[in-house]
Predict the 3D structure of the following.
Amino acid sequence: MSTANARPRATAAFVAQAALAFGVSFIGVGIGIFALPLDIWQRGFLAMSVLFLVTSTFTLAKVVRDQHEAATIHGRIDQARMEKLLAEHDPFTSVA
């Protein structure tokens, strides 16, 4: 298997760092909303906004990843078709 086509894998340390950073930031914004001198409905609005932002960020990340994977697979299929056509093409054959 060629190393050019190998998918890069995230290390366990990178996954742990990403999860920890997400958890700390999510808890931090929750504490910030709770500590603000606001009415309960204003806190609720901010909390709902943060939750919507987090879920839409996950959705956007998944869509971008899926589009990238689809483009990669589509590109490989197109490349294989082109290589097949070039391999079958004989420039010295006359077309009648």
In short: The CA atoms of residues 89 and 95 lie 12 Å apart. The mean pLDDT is 86. The two ends are 42 Å apart (CA to CA). DSSP finds two helices and no strands in the chain.
